Description:
By secondary structure, the chain is an alpha+beta fold.
Amino acid sequence: MKSDSTGCHGHPAIAGWPCERGMKFAGPQRKSQVVVDFLRESTNPAPRRSPELSCNQAPKVDFRRKSTTLLAPWALQLRLRLASFALWAAVYSPAPIAHAEEPAESAASPPVAAEFVELAVYPPQVRLEHGADAQRVIAVATRADGVTVDVTSQVQWSRAGEGPELLAVDAGVVTPRAVGNALLQAQLGELTAATDVQVAAVDPPGAPEFRHDVMPVFMRAGCNAGGCHGAALGKDGFQLSLFGYDPAGDYYRLTRQLSTRRINRALPDDSLLLQKAIAGVPHTGGKRFTPDDEYYAAIHDWIAAGAGDDAEQAATVESLQIYPPQAVLEGSDAAQQFIAVATYSDGEQRDVTDLAVFLSNNDASAAVGDSGLVTAANAGEAFVTARFDVHTVGSQVLSLSPEAKYEPPAEPPANFIDELVEAKLSKLRVSPSGLCTDDEFLRRVTIDLAGRLPTAEERAALHDDQSPERREHVVDALLASPDFVDVWALKWAEILLVRSEPNRVEYKPMYLYWQWIRNHVAAGTPADAMVRELISASGSSFLEPEVNFYQIEPDAKKIAENAAQAFLGIRVQCAQCHNHPFDRWTMDDYYSFAAFFSQIARKRTEDYREILVFNRGGGESTLPVTGKAMPPKFLGGEQPEINRRDRREVVAEWIASPDNPYFAANLANRAWSHMLGVGIVEPVDDVRVSNPPSNPELLDALAARLVKHEFDIRKLLRDIATSYAYQRTVETTAGNAHDQRNFAHALVRRIPAEALLDCVSQATGAPERLPGLPPGARALEVADGNGGNYFLTAFGRSKRTTVCACEASAEPTLSQALHMLNGNTVHGKITQGGLVKTWLEEGRTPAEVIAAIYDRCLGRAPSEAESQQLLALCGDNEKPVAELEDAFWAVLNSREFLFNH
């Protein structure tokens, strides 16, 4: 083992940092310490913003310096472990971008209250079913600036028209007085709004019913949640179905198991079911309600009436609505009452506000109480959901700061994308950042669309092009390049699980599967045609490689899950065992959709590597709770006519249809996420009611645009890349620094694993030698999800074991930092490429070599300070190969290189 200052990779060692081979660099050399400082103190991966869209030189990153005192060897030894993490944090954690200072005069003063311009009453129709029925009504006023105010307590309520008093209103609650129809009117100043009220009956209600009245109490009180009696094995000897998916089973367990204890028909108050809930006896779950609550009354009266089962006559909940559909609150003390209204199959309309479960996905901006009262907090947005029975619905809540003011961008919108992004930012009072420079744009879009760094020729061409369409010319060239085919073929390979697996998918059919994908991308096959061909595929895994989609995952239920998640962005996995707690999908939906894939058959041929996939014409998907065979049914749609066709052909036509509300939106969202680093729905494959799009209008427009483009993904990517939303700088302002979902500024993103390895190879002039691929092949061309090397694994390459987009990770880790610092990849490629040595032999000075390194890696010239600091490595050495390779290594380890910005 070497004990001098030279590291095991042939480069001067960095004092105090560990080597992946287990050695510690001990030599306290000044030049190495400078490199450490260079990396540790490079805090801003984002170039400074230039306000003009011009062909100027890329702005320089200011690597600020401070003097460093060298540590003695014993101190280095003491701090060895902490040092690795410290450098990882400094190098790989994207530092906050410095806020651009805003002029003092731009600070907004508190706005003067605007007059209300609109008044609305919710719900728009009210139906009262019996004499004890009641319905909350709310009145919402809207100001000229879009802010909404709950004015329920301020309006004057009156009944329009003549006739008997049919109803009464007290504190926003409507109760019946006589049968008939009436118009309930609210007045605020000169504004009026009304809701239709129908009183169906004024007779007293009948006894509570199990499904209609008791089951909702279990949901509201949390009794059938996964952490309580809804767990797989129940809790403390008592089990309920999770979220009430099996009412018949719940009724049996309540009335037949321990029947004399759980319910007591003679003495309802002594029922264990009630005593536990009010903590009258020890209860692990604590007190759920009190004897005075309506929840207690519903269960008590049901037991007192004989604890009957309403299975035969029970109406089902057909829909659920939440009101108001949107709230825009100003100030941290603003509040809005939400109400939930259920509509049943027999026409009943019911106020279920006190029975629904309300949740907010962002309590920091808008918190919701148990009964639907939303209170604003910090500026931002939230989505409030209400769940009742099997239905989940939601409403958007914007929380605005009174001091915030929207400043529109200087440039007009480039296309429809900018119009919709700016409309949302205007609502939020968040001003967008300016545009990036031409060089920043070129680097960003080249990495995104080609998976590599821009070449010197591409930079020169952009600088020479003075036309207003110069950026569009760059995008068009990249989309037409073979490099784009590599990028998008990889995207599809991850979605379609292209990987070899012993005894299931051998290497040959796997490679043919990948080649099928790549050929379609290269040919520009529309995405809908490609998906239809894939889902309906039958035949040999050699001759029809797309059938490997059914061999990689042979289970029909898993195939259905994969198809829903990959092509529709919907995760239905939860509904296999219980109704989805945060979405609309039920067990019936799950097993009906799985029925499309229940008749797939396979058999081997004489070549053990080849399989035949075909439709066997039989086989059903059965619901575990009832054992009933479920007919094939589209998710959220109707039951189609099969007429002896292969069921997969039918579902393929539906999935890839332009009329499918999920397919085009899913592809558009994935394309947007690829280009901007975050989806409009995020995660991109988790579309659900409780995870709404950040900009629904934008997602709808992108989906419609993709359909108009006949599912040509290149055209949609061009729309995105030429928008100013994509071309914003990463530099933030004080007003938009918190924004991560509305595209007020570009996000700093770590380059994906395959593209990063290709960028390192390109910068160093040393192609990667990849197993099974010819010399010079790119990491983007690795077909097998089980292939690759340590670098790709460390940097989060997808193994393609599931269709989840989360398999490909761009999160920085300590192992990545250590591999970049001490691994063979960077050190080896710098030496293998030999660029530093070649440049010096050509007669270039150290300063010129440093400039060449910056140009090759970062696409810009070094600043004077950067150049001087790295020149300090060279000392008086006329041929400082090792020293300049250290400088090369430092630039490759900088955040400006590792991140796309």
